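Lab meeting, action items carried over

1. Structure of the two-component assembly. Owner: GW. Status: complete.
Input record:
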Amino acid sequence: MAASEIDRLIQQLARLPGLGPRSARRAALHLLQKRETALLPLVDSLRRAAECIVPCSNCGNLDDCDPCRICQDSRREAASLCVVEEVGDLWALERSGAFRGRYHVLGGCLSALDGRGPEQLNLARLWQRAEDPAVKEIILALSATVDGQTTAHYIAERLAHLPVQLTRLGQGVPVGGDLDYLDDGTLLAAFSARRPA
Amino acid sequence: MAASEIDRLIQQLARLPGLGPRSARRAALHLLQKRETALLPLVDSLRRAAECIVPCSNCGNLDDCDPCRICQDSRREAASLCVVEEVGDLWALERSGAFRGRYHVLGGCLSALDGRGPEQLNLARLWQRAEDPAVKEIILALSATVDGQTTAHYIAERLAHLPVQLTRLGQGVPVGGDLDYLDDGTLLAAFSARRPA
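Predicted assembly:
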């Protein structure tokens, strides 16, 4: 019979994305059996994270300083600004090394279904940043979903009067992707984006 | 670019069983974005667990009281004692509802390869408990691996002089198991354990 404190811990762990009840039990047991080497360091990391990680007031990224390291870094190109939905998207782009400019994190995208309008997103600051004469290109790196594309369209309309180039990510066959497994929408996009061989 | 505090948190989370680097990143982001509803409650649960969950000095189970609730529970049958390797095995048996006696957690099994001898296991207390005249049956619910069976054999030899019945778990086809996918060892065990239909 699991004790109530153990049950509570398992319930908390099971709420993490990627952990179901079964793996939450395994994780709890691992932590309880390795108190000094696993449980206490994790408590420490989580507490420090709760204390010192804040959203960047400039771009919306999460970091232990404000402005975040990317906004502070003078080696990043000031001419291009990449608009993403979530911090996770920013992390993915950073890992790919595809981009050397700065970011703007919206904190989601417009969604009629979820009742998320422009005032719920980090847009007011984007309008300000877009007017900076140093910014020459704004890349709308939003999801290729209906909501993501609606958001991209909305931002593009709002920024159309500015002398800034607006771009979107290329669409087509993912690298390593098998044509046989691709959906029709991706195949259509790949066809219309075809290039000379 | 992930910050160092965030990196440290991801590293800690990635060490949990069942979480790889990718899911640890997702979990960290989830926690950071839901500070009040996810991060702080998890810190609280972990800290409470670190403070109050201890191994039971009688059976080796983990609980927030010592002796644990199972050892304290007078409704559990005192006549049967179930020896398991780990607390996780005890949890699994409790979930199944198969057993209403008390447990004894060894904290592993004998392993020549890992250099784990009898003195590393919770055996001294088992020899004491086995001499309790109330105990009529000791069930060796150990893994069906070489190490598990070696451990069961070792315990059976050490307890052979006592007037207590020693049993092991039945072996055979798992419920819902497809014969086609079973290994030869399980099929052999199932054949030799065949019963009248």
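2. GW to write a short summary for the group page. Key points so far: The longest strand of chain B covers residues 80-84. The two ends of chain B are 65 Å apart (CA to CA).
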